[in-house]
Design a protein that fits this description.
Helix content: 40-55%
Structural class: alpha/beta
CATH class: Alpha Beta
Number of helices: 9
Order of helices and strands: EHEHEHEHEHHEHHHE
CATH architecture: 3-Layer(aba) Sandwich
Length: about 250
């Protein structure tokens, strides 16, 4: 089986920059039409125009994924414009790097809203159609922080660990509808978010220390997109409920 996605429609959250943008381009390169979700209309429009230049159909599916009504509208618009959604990539994420006892309740809530509640809302909105059609692929971008924990990222790590657990549950429940559900856990990837996390001394020290532990060095968004392509394509048609670490050798735990 190859990685051809012609005739498929992908809905990618947080696709306006970083890993999400790379995923959008990778899936479009292999034939998919793309609904570019982002909270920023400007970023979503820019990436959707880039996809159109590639020769694929694309729309900006603007929504705050922590708002279920916005999510439902975005999914409906994507389905009306591009057709039924075949591939969902839960990619949107946000974090702040500081000791747990220094975090604010507002920061905790934002991390939980974007990294845990959001993927639940988007998956609910998209998976209903997949279930009716008895076909679909769901890929969630978690983090190695969710597998092994991470200094200064307690709540974020908890959310990503939750995404791993809930994805395994989704895989069990949705298998009867021929929907595959898998998880990718990046390590440190060179994205705007990673740069934002290093705006203070604590963040710079933590990120610097972790980077020095990565045998293959800092990762690129395109390397995560390659893993997404594998799970999105027929090449992984017999794989579900699995967690793949893409971290350049940072972690080796099973």
């Amino acid at each position: 089986m190859g990685t051809e996605l012609s005739g498929k429609v992908a809905f990618i959250t947080g696709a306006g920059s970083g890993i999400g943008r790379a995923i959008a381009h990778e899936l479009a390169d292999h034939g998919a039409d793309v609904a570019v979700n982002d909270i920023s209309p400007e970023r979503a429009e820019l990436v959707s125009k880039e996809i159109v230049v590639q020769g694929r159909r694309a729309i900006a599916a603007v929504a705050d994924i922590s708002d279920f009504e916005q999510v439902q509208r975005a999914v409906q618009v994507a389905s009306d414009e591009l057709g039924p959604i075949d591939i969902l990539v839960n990619n949107a994420g946000w974090d702040t790097l500081k000791p747990f006892l220094q975090g604010t309740l507002a920061e905790y809530n934002k991390i939980i809203d974007i990294n845990f509640r959001g993927p639940i809302f988007v998956t609910r909105a998209v998976a209903e159609g997949m279930s009716r059609r008895k076909s679909g692929v769901i890929i969630s971008i978690a983090s190695d922080a969710g597998r092994v924990g991470s200094l200064g990222e307690a709540v974020y790590s908890g959310c990503k660990g939750g995404i791993i657990a809930i994805s395994k549950s989704w895989a069990r429940e949705l298998a009867r509808d021929h929907i595959r559900v898998n998880v990718i856990c990046p390590g440190l990837i060179d994205t705007p978010l990673l740069h934002n996390l290093q705006e203070n001394d604590f963040g710079r020290k933590v990120i610097g220390a972790i980077t020095r532990q990565i045998p293959f060095g800092l990762g690129r968004p395109e390397q995560i997109a390659d893993a997404v392509l594998f799970f999105a394509s027929p090449a992984s048609e017999y794989i579900t409920g699995q967690v793949l670490s893409v971290s350049g050798g940072l972690t080796y735990q099973g």
